[in-house]
Amino acid sequence: MTIKEAGQQVSDEFQNFDDWMDKYNYVIELGKECPMIDEKNKVENNLIAGCQSRVWLSADYIDGKIYYKADSDAVITKGIATILIKVLSGQEPQAIIDADFDFINDIGLKEHLSPTRSNGLTAMIKQMKLYALVYKTKYETTH
Amino acid sequence: MFDVNKIREDFPILKQLVYTKPLVYLDNAATTQKPKSVIDDVVKYYYEENSNIHRGVHFLSQQATVAFENARNYIKDYINAANNYEIIFTRGTTESINLVAFSFGKKFINKDDEIIISAMEHHANIVPWQMICEDRQAILKVIPFNDKGELDLDAFEKLISAKTKIVAITHVSNALGTINPIKDIIKTSHDNGIPVMIDGAQGIAHSKVDVQDLDCDFYCFSGHKMYAPMGIGVLYGKEKWLNAMPPYQGGGEMIQTVTFEKTTFNELPFKFEAGTPNVGAVIGLHSAMKYVDNLGIDNIAAYEDELLKYATAELLNIDGVKIIGTAAHKAAVISFNIDAIHPYDAGTIIDRFGVAVRTGHHCAQPVMDIYKIPGTIRASFSFYNTKEEIEPLIKAIHKVKEMFN
What sections of B215-364 are H helices per DSSP? Predict the structure, then answer.
């Protein structure tokens, strides 16, 4: 599945809910599926700046693809991180670097998932792309 | 009689719906809303009076200058300063504090000298002092507070030494709501020959401030937290200090004569007002003070205290609500947490009920560290809030508990 398709799938799932509260409940549920970052990696270096809550993010490079793990002390933020991971994990670095995130606008929690909020969405995306860039550069310089 | 429904008519912004629900604005400690009279006066200024001040001989410039200086005179009376040239216009409290830290520091603070602040200061009353400490190789001393959020005055007296050059304390804590006994702190400091700067950002809108009665050496405040536009603030300073301190910024307005060999500085207050001031916002501040005077600051304080007591009782009725900051003397600010729920999660849901509260560390990270919490939810009230508006907040909190527990 491409990133675009994965994004579409997430936004389709959100179309099942009319009510903002149901949408948040779903974000909270999604958070429970978050691939948890190892406790030993919950360090200052993996903290994402720019959030009201603390978000830790790590990335592994396996067979040419990137897999993310995260955690947050806020439940909604953890859910948002999980959405991004669902869409981006298992993709190749270049695809992640090139990805757009239009699907976030379609979810219908625009006010909350938009980059203007202090949930760190923008910072999370930036950090995920940065990991992709680092792994891509590392791979290219060693091959 | 304080007719809050009539007062609300003066604030056009309060009439709107947020997510189809009536807006409940409880973020007054961040900024207050503006009455129509203030908005109208600012609009009128730009429609009819806008001109650069002090230098023009033409009609409009003279008119704008008169309006600007009338505002200064009104502010002088509002805080009962001895002289109008002790009122310095700044961009806000932050700039006022930076001005004092920089100029006072440059003149009076030297290696190994000490500056006293408190553990409940806003970052704006911490960072400028840290910067000047680094520059002058001076030392920052911090007054602790107890679990209720009250300053430890015994500890304060012990911090005072022959090296103490200035005490800088907030009038009211933005994170805890504590009203500090600034008059006592000023008295103690003066007994030791130390001047005192008060951060009045949260104090000025909610209580009578009389700088001569307080005898403070500096008092800083912002217009936007007292119903005036953003971008305007005031530094009150005693003449003897302001005259002794070097200018903060250089530019037009603040000079007497300029040659490439030597520039002489203008007299007070212009020495500290480099560049074109925010005349429109000054007009707005004047207008806001007239509005408050019309309602009566004592009436405002009494009504807000009633709201504080009512809202505190209502919140404490809810299982799991813990109020952070329970000082005996409090302004209408309630910082709280709900069980172990993260304030960001709670704030996100409360917002959906049309209730505007602030979540986070409120620019007072040291306070949060002391309580070992990531932040709080803060509801801060103004005289246009009603008891009925507490209800949507209470409903929202119940929802938060349901969703996150």
Answer: 239-244, 279-295, 297-316, 343-352
Q: Which domain holds residue A13?
A: 3-142
Q: B331: closest CA among B369, B366, B389, B383?
A: B383
Taking only the tens place, the pLDDT of each residue in B322-360 is 999 999 999 999 999 999 999 999 999 999 999 999 998
Over residues B250-262, mean pLDDT: 85
Which of A79, A77, A91 minimizes the C-alpha distance to A120? A77
Judged by CB atoms closer than 8 Å, whether chains meet at A24 and B375 is answered as no
Report d(CA B158, CA B153) in Å as an integer: 9
Picking from A20, A25, A75, the nearest residue to B342 by CB comes out as: A75
> Is residue A78 a contact partner of residue A71, using CB atoms and an 8 Å limit?
yes
Q: Which two tokens stand for residue B54?
A: 């002090």
| Domains held by chain A: number | 1
What pTM, to 2 d.p., does this model score?
0.93
Q: Give me the domains of chain B, ranges plus CATH numbers.
A: 4-30+296-404 (3.90.1150.10), 39-294 (3.40.640.10)
Residue-by-residue DSSP string for B21-62:
EE-EE-BTTT-----HHHHHHHHHIIIII----SS--SHHHH
Contact A20 B344 (CB under 8 A): no
The phi and psi torsions of B362 (rounded to 5 degrees) equal 55, 35
Three-state DSSP state, B134 = helix
pLDDT tens per residue, range A53-67 = 889 999 999 999 999
Q: Which of B100, B90, B107, B108 is nearest to B117 (CA)?
A: B100
Which two structure tokens, joined as six digits, stand for B198? 């008060």
Give me the interface pTM, i.e. the ipTM.
Answer: 0.88
- Which CATH number belongs to the domain containing residue A138 in this structure? 3.90.1010.10
Alpha-carbon gap, residue A71 to B240, rounded angstroms: 56
Q: How far apart are the first and last CA of chain A?
A: 26
φ/ψ bin of B180: left (φ > 0), alpha (ψ from -120 to 50), beta (otherwise)? beta
Length of chain A, in residues? 143
| Eight-class DSSP state of B390 | H
SS3 A102: coil
What residue of A is the nearest CA neighbor of B360?
A52
